[in-house]
Each structure stands twice: as structure tokens, then as C-alpha cells.
Amino acid sequence: MKKVFGLLMFFVCMGVASAKIASTNFEPTRSEEEFDVMYYKFPSFEIYDVPDENQQEVGVNQAFKATFNGCEGEIRYSLFKETGKNTDFSISSYAYTIALNIAGEPSCVKGQNAFSESDVANNFNGTSGLSYFIMNPQSRFAGGYLFASVECFYKKGQGLCVRTTLFNEPEFFGIKDGQFDTKSDWAKYYKSFKFMEKDKAGKYIKRAVK
Fold it and tell me: Of 24, 40, 90, 133, whose Cβ has the fewest other Cβ atoms within 10 Å?
């Protein structure tokens, strides 16, 4: 893991009556010891340092350039540690704010979906997750790309791992003739990270990949 570069983002007030209800207990990671995530580097992945100017809205801890189905794109990870107790509402509010920062304009966010908690647990060793699909993003973060998929995976007691996939051709994301191809490279390499845990001795707990 790498340190976050510069100022990452601020939480936007969602207009609720009680500030206490709307408050979130997350903050960007600032050192490698704050958050344990294992990234999987597949054959088509190339480690990539995202320029500082493309991290104005959201910082990046780890990034890869990748080639899926003959198309090029990027996969970026941003980590936000949990600093206190959060509700489902505060988690989704914070995740949506991140997606808005990546979109640049609210109208660019075309959809939100919730992951099955069992899928998040089995695939990423997490607790829950939300995803957002963005078209024609206007942020510096997504500069040069037509599409972005923002997946916010939460693990209770650790925080959020945000995986952003940036691409120009639908085929990169496994979309062919308007349908998702379950045999695409994106589907094949979907389980590209995992939340890690340590035992009382400080050693990583090894879990079988399902």
C-alpha cells in the first residue's frame, strides 16, 4: 500500500435536520499501517502512479493500468479508515459523496446498486458494499475517460475500500452488445483485492479464496 497524496476530500452536508445523524466516522488513510488490504496483481495489470493533479477530488492509495478484452483502462483504490461507529445511512452518504467527487456533476451519476452482504463477505472479506455507474465524468480524477464504475466496499471496524474502474470502451467492463459477459476479463479478475485481518500476535489471518 502507498500513502495518500495530498488533500483527499471533504464530506458534503446532505441537508438532514440533525448533524449528529448525518455525521460520519471516516477519514482518508495517511500511512501504510492504518489499513490492511491485499491487492492481487494479475498478468495484465501494471502498477501505476496516478499524477497528483488527478487526485484533487479523491486520493489514490494503489492503482493499476489494465487491458481487458483488448481495451485499456485503469483500476484505482482509495482507502478511508473508520474512526468510530457508523450507521447504514452514514456509510451510504459518505460513499455517495465519494462517487459525486469522482463524477464531478450529480447528473453524471446514472445509478446506484447495493451488493449482497454475503457476496461482499465471500469475495472481499467485507461487510457491505454499494456501486455507482458514472457517464462522462467531469472531475480531474476521471479526466480522459468516458465511464467510471465506483464500488465502495465497507468492512466494519476497518473502513471503506473504494475501487474505481475507469474506461472508454464498454468491452473493458465486460459489456458486449449491451449485455454483461460473464466470461469477460473483468468478470475473471473481479476479485482483485481483499480486506485483511491480523490475529492477536499481529500475524495476518489467512483465509481461503471462495
Answer: 40
User: What is the pTM assigned to this prediction?
Assistant: 0.84
Location of C-alpha cell 464504475: 149
In 54-92, which positions are buried (b, 16+ CB within 10 angstroms) versus exposed (e)? bbebbbbbbbbebebbebebbbbbbbbbbeeebeeebbb
Which pLDDT value is given to residue 34? 82
Q: State the pLDDT confidence band at 20, using cuts at 50, 70 and 90.
A: very low
pLDDT in tens, 144-178: 999 999 999 999 999 999 999 999 999 999 888 78
List helix spans (H) across 18-157.
Answer: 19-22, 88-103, 117-124
- Cα torsion angle, 170, 179, 149, 105, sign: positive
pLDDT of 98 over the 50 cut: yes
Alpha helices for the chain (secondary structure H): 19-22, 88-103, 117-124, 185-188
Q: Which cell is 81 given?
A: 479508515
Question: Helix and strand tally (H, E) in the chain?
Answer: 4, 12
Residue 72 CA to chain centroid, in angstroms? 19
Cα(137)–Cα(141) distance, rounded to whole angstroms?
Answer: 9
Question: Residue 52, SS3?
Answer: helix
